[in-house]
Amino acid sequence: MLQKYKQAIDEYLSSEVLLPKIIVIYGPTACGKTALSLDIAEYLGSDIISTDSRQIYRDMDIGTGKIKPSEMRGIRHHMINVIDPSQIWSVVDYIDMALPIIEQIHSEGKIPILCGGTGLYIDGLLYEMGYPDTPPDWKYRDELEDIRLSKGNQELWNMLATIDPEYAHTLEVGNYRYVMRGLEVIRQTGISKLTSIGKKTARFAPLYITPYDDANRKELYANIDRRVSEMFDNGLIGEIEYIVSQFSSHCPGLTTIGYREVVDALKGNTTLEQAKSLIQQRSRNYAKRQITWNRKYEYGNTSRQSSRFEK
């Protein structure tokens, strides 16, 4: 897989840029990012930093497709197994923890490799972000929580999609805390959370690489369906039962795709077979949203050095 990108990487290595270099491997779930990141990290002798918002959780290995220690080829991996499933985590928390790791890798004379499908994490690292200075509106949050409890997460997401579709389509339906915050920001400011965050100053001069080719979308969806089936075969139910026993069925980590569906089945609300089909469907839908987000990088299935530098 490396050979396809080797020329672009070598040209990037020899290029002169004003900012520190960083390689960004992006793309939808199940498109082959992990395998490519290992090949590139091995070639460069560098480290991999996960930009996956689900792999930060400990004990959530099977349902997030987390790489096993035996598969790491001795390459250092960062930003996985960081917090318990019961903890609340934000993009700001992620940036605060990941940036010092990037600085350390640079100090060792290496080029860090970002790998993952969470666009907000990628952009949060690449740019100094102007986060909206909007205080919590507790009364409104209580109203939103009442809606969530009575009508479900989907109703909240639909509300956000109606007034801020761009931001809504970066979020999973189950990430209701982010959905609530998006509704809160646009209620107070009248503008999208994405707009209010905005890109300010570039921190790095990135090389973007994706293994995904949109011509192979049917193959991607087949890979997603197969991966979900393998998760069930490899013990996903037992993994979730353990997390519920150690924490609760309501902890933040279990709101993500692949977990909340099984929790519902274990409660008797659906069958496990229905849960599997729902996970496959939601994972395909999530991949569509990732593809849409990735288009803003303007690199399709090629690899080129970014020219979007802010001085």
Question: How would you describe what is shown here?
Answer:
By secondary structure, this protein is an alpha/beta fold. The chain folds into three domains: 3-131 and 199-214 and 291-305, 3-Layer(aba) Sandwich (Rossmann fold), CATH 3.40.50; 138-196, Histone, subunit A; 217-289, Helix Hairpins (Orthogonal Bundle). The protein has 13 helices and eight strands. It has helices at 3-14, 33-44, 91-107, 119-126, 138-151, 153-163, 165-168, 176-189, 193-197, 217-233, 236-246, 260-266, 272-294; strands at 21-25, 48-50, 77-78, 113-115, 127-129, 199-202, 205-209, 304-305. The strands form two sheets. It has a six-stranded mixed β-sheet with strand order 3-2-4-1-7-8, with helices on both faces. Strands 5-6 form a two-stranded antiparallel ribbon. α12 (260-266) packs antiparallel against α13 (272-294). The protein is globular. 39% of the residues are buried. The model is unreliable at 299-311 (pLDDT under 50).
